[in-house]
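Human: For the file, kindly provide a plain-text protein record giving the amino acid sequence and the backbone structure tokens, at your earliest convenience.
Assistant:
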Amino acid sequence: MTSRHAVGLILALGAAACGGDPRAETATPPARRAATPPATLATVDSELVDAPLSLPGQLYVENDAVVIARAPGLVEAVHADLGSRVAAGQLLASLESTDQQIALARATEEADNARRVAVRQRALAAAGGSTAAELEQVESELRRAEIQLRQARRDADLTRVVAPFAGVVTARMARARRLVRVGDSLFRVTAASPLLVSVRVPENSADGIRPGAPARVLGLRGAAAAGRIVRVSPAIDAASGTQEAVVQLDSGAHLVPGASVTVRLGAQRRWVVAMPRSALSPDGYVLVWANDRTTLRAVTLGGDLSGGRVEVASGLTPGETVVRAAR
């Protein structure tokens, strides 16, 4: 109701329903006005069609991640730019790491020395020239040195910002010579494939919608791609009366993640919920007439039908009454 278009539709349809003159409504007694239904009513009904089910959706990929700084420091160099294709583990940026490299060298030297001492102490213990307590002390120092070495290696690795998987750099926030903190966003990497789209299939059209079934995906500028259903929810959503299905596009599709698409499923004869397209506002709302009053309701549309009618994927049920816009 907050939409200006939706409010405008209410005013326009209300005026048309009561004779087209809003001023005349003030002269009509409330009881008489309630008893007189709008002249532009239409009944929502079912229609048997032989056409694919058309549903809106938006493309996405499973691997889409923001790469953050895992260590504080100054950005020393940026190795990838917006639009760069990167492999898994490829270096995207490097932080200043002088302190970490010094600590790593020190830990490496201490670990090597501890290993040499442990080798000598084990030989002495085998020959009876060292006690078990002395050997255990040396072994403990070796374990401690190896742990410190692992920590130093990790600290050094965290100064290297790498791609978590193969894909494309879709955002770059990293800038050379800028100080970053742990958790700061540096890049966004998005996998190029596989492209997926999730759609909500009306319960009365869900027959035959199963994994492996073919699909056709259409973009806004004429691009099209074949695909197949890879996942179907085992339950119907009680709120919308729909079942979720996920379609995976075939490789080579000239579409990108985030694009709005229309998914066409099936081609068998099926029953659909239909209403006049003239009852739809530009914002996707309809006015439902019930109990001598109108209620604004959002609907999801499917494909166009004959006679100026349109399929309703969700939001209306057969037998309900809607108000058509006056022409």
About this structure: Confidence is low (pLDDT under 50) at residues 1-36. Residues 98-127 form the longest helix (30 residues). The chain has five helices and 22 strands.
